[in-house]
User: What shape does this take?
Amino acid sequence: MSTDRQPDPAAAEEPAEPQPAADTEAEADSESASGSETGSGTGSGAETETDTDTVPVAGEAAAAAAPELSEAQAELAAQKIERERIARRKAEREAPVEAGAKLSGKAADLLAAVRAVESGAKPSSVYFDEAPAAPRKAAPAPPPPPRKAAQAPAAAPAADTVEGVRAVLARGGAPEELAAPAAAALGDGAAERLAENPWLLLSVPAVRPTQADGFARALLGPEAGPGDERRTSALVGWLLVQAGLKGHTALEAPVLRSALAQYGVPEPDEALEAAIGEGSVLVFHEPLGPPVGEDEEQPVRVLVGLEGAAMAEESLADGLARIASTFDAPADWEKAAAGPGAELIRAVAGHGLVAHTGGEAARAEPLALLAAAREFGLRACLAAHAPSAEGVTVAGLLAGAQGPGRDADGQFALDLLVVLDAPQLDVETAAALVESVPDGARLVLSGDPSVLGSAGAGRVFADLLAARTCPQVVSRVPDPGPLGELVSGVGIGELNQVDAPGKEVVIVPVRDAGEAVHRAVQLVAESVPRAFGIPADSVQVITPGHGGPAGTRALNAALKERLNPGPGRFGGFDPGDRVVHVPSPGRALPARVVSADAEGLHLERAGAQVVVPKDLVESQVRHGWAVTAHQAVGTRWPAVVVVLPGDAAQALSRDWVYTAFGRAERHLSVVHGVDQALPRAVAEVLPKPRTTRLTGLLTSLAAAGEQPE
Assistant: This one.
């Protein structure tokens, strides 16, 4: 990598105030308001401030009164104001919380944690690789959420239901503000169910087992114990929900038993068997290795999962097998099979289901296929994860807001569907998409398998490739130039030093987070526009986490101060602010603030006007000059500034670096403060595995289809 050492700032930086570690993003984006990205466990639980607070007027006056400050000093002053605001917000959160009556201690902590997750400022901290980090040893505590306890409901609960739940919460010393989400999660009879089984409080996002245990002890007294069947049943469901936030669709039974033991369940084997017996979870036996003889016992792994993910995965497998088997009209497209996409065109001419892999340059091949199909008179549609000029979004297609619409049977009125960014498909979205493809139509799933995976549960594209049950076309088109060479090297585990005569790749070493923020602002506002003629609005900053002194919140505060200063009179936003709109987990859509009124916040998003209702602004809108790689996946910008502060070293992995670096079209600046952690991550830190069932389901269906009837 070429290194361009920028001159040091003219003004010396003041000592930085102590800051919590960054809230780093996880593989799956479960933080709804931040593009569905969550902390990986290194984040500070104390940092719960949101991005929508207005900058104090005193800070604006101070900035206005000191026009003689140098650029570096002005930026540092803005950072100091932001740090003071954060400290003030933390102090407010640590004070008694208003909830009909003053709350303090554990009740206040519980309310603050839930508010932090619901506002997108802080994710739930439990994730699975093998088992949760060891919690408290064994607290007398009660039972469990029901089978679908953690699944968010759709409709708002009735007022009398909320009031009933509020009364139960008050008896147990829990914040009354949890009444609405608890009532929504538990549905009819919520108050009675919660009173009978206090551990159903785990159905509220961000409520932890220790907190549910305390609530249960307050309601049940000595009856509440760690082996209570209600508690163990709820814990099984809760643990599987937390695993889903990490991307798993199921967990191996030994992993789940180990997790139960860590949460103080005295007989984890019996607890798991009881949960399976009552039907709150499903159990699967997945064969391992090749089939064995009749007299031999087939090795299996035992998987446990929730009904929703299980049904989605099985529906997806059935749908993919249906598309592959109902296609019976191979076509002669040889006259169109020339130039880019020739191999893909030939494969799609003869098969109903095709997988296509390649980098950014390879996206030209599905576009060539689309053009050829339309020339042959087929109804063809291209869908992608993010808005694009060539097609529609997957979300818009499913919602019926974009694309060809549906026929009388409710299926897409098309003959060919090409889906780009296939690695971003989770099992539920993919199942809904595949179920809508009519019999006899063609489906192409295309994407770069090296980028970050989906925000939701599953690894659909990787599982399809691993099953090898359909034709796979591997693009041989390399990404061009120094950027293409750099990103290609990262994909195979090598951080190469590339020749960049046009400064396509620039490394900016920094000593600490304060300098990293200053450099990033300088690059966006001055250096890149001056050197490459790329306007600041076309330069995207990417960093590993939301929190910390160089996370998205700090970077966005500094960038707003420089590029679009204002009082934030619209819930922290001003007209002209760059934002990301997150209408649902995993979808972070770039937008710009236009105005606000009683109706809500008015955004311009991909050329369309969107209104975010006032009560959803805090949870769905974030400033967007700086984003995480999960928020950036599926989109590219003329120039990208990747900020790697020292506290982000543990968050780096090969797929994260590949994704972040690959978002740049013409220029990449790397604000580098992690020393050898970057090449080490590229060489050694592989994507964390996800436990899924799709590969096995697809291979089983393919084998069954080959059996003679």
Remarks:
- The first strand starts at residue 97 and ends at 98.
- The radius of gyration is 26 Å.
